[in-house]
Design a protein that fits this description.
Elements: E1 28-33, H1 46-60, E2 68-72, H2 78-91, E3 97-103, E4 106-108, E5 115-118, H3 126-131, E6 133-135, H4 136-144, E7 150-156, E8 162-163, E9 166-167, E10 187-190, H5 208-220
Parallel strand pairs: 1-2, 1-3, 3-7, 7-10
Antiparallel strand pairs: 4-5, 5-6, 8-9
Helix pairs in contact: 1-5, 2-4
């Protein structure tokens, strides 16, 4: 295929998942993808990326489907995310791995010392956003506090309070550099710095970071094997 003249959607590699027979029954995963926010701007393609992560974790990582929970859109309230995080932490066994995937909006905390993951029903005011969002440090603390060996968090959100549609809500406190945020014993891959926003894949209606990270894990980033 001549990618130079391909349609934008076709110019990106296709995600291909290799199924394995061995099941990692000690592992668990929580996926949160919010494409349709109730009151703030939507995140186009978030659920497509969420589905791809589900297929990767169940097929290529071999995590049993009963150990994977996927919250989409109106399922992803603050309370539901916290409840599922506690549940998945509790079922991850000793020596296992706990995955957390978040694809949606982020924002700075009130004092700018942390980032928050924005719940689906957050409103377009600073107070409404904070009441319906979860501090990243709180969620990561829940996830890492279990019997499992490793916790991996993929955060396809930025904490600048901006999106490709502009500011989520007005007058948010600017965030410190993301490298200064303490994340404990969790491996965190995050989409951007405090001065950036997590944007879409050029030419395709899906978030770029979680798509390209997943592609890297499936082999795009390992050309010399």
């Amino acid at each position: 295929t001549n990618l130079l003249f391909a349609a934008p959607e076709e110019a990106w590699p296709i995600l291909d998942f290799t199924s394995i027979s061995e099941k990692r029954i000690q592992d668990a995963a929580l996926i949160v993808s919010i494409e349709d926010y109730a009151l703030v701007s939507d995140v186009k393609g978030a659920n497509r990326n969420g589905e791809d992560w589900y297929n990767y974790l169940s097929k290529q990582q071999g995590i049993p489907t009963k150990n994977i929970k996927w919250l989409q859109d109106d399922q992803a309230s603050k309370e539901a995310i916290l409840n599922r995080a506690n549940e998945m932490r509790s079922i991850t066994e000793e020596g296992g791995k706990l995955w957390f995937i978040f694809i949606g909006h982020g924002a700075p905390s009130k004092d700018g010392s942390d980032g928050v993951l924005v719940g689906m029903d957050a409103s377009q005011s600073a107070m409404g956003l904070y009441e319906r969002s979860i501090p990243q440090s709180e969620l990561l603390s829940i996830l890492e506090n279990g019997k499992h060996k490793d916790t991996i968090a993929i955060i396809d959100a930025c904490f600048s309070g901006n999106s490709d549609a502009g500011a989520l809500v007005p007058n948010l406190q600017p965030l410190i550099a993301t490298s200064d945020i303490q994340t404990g014993d969790v491996y965190v891959l995050s989409a951007g710095t405090s001065e950036q926003f997590a944007g879409p894949l050029p030419g395709a209606d899906r978030p770029a970071f979680s798509y390209l990270t997943l592609g890297g894990l499936t082999g795009w980033a390992d050309q010399n094997q």
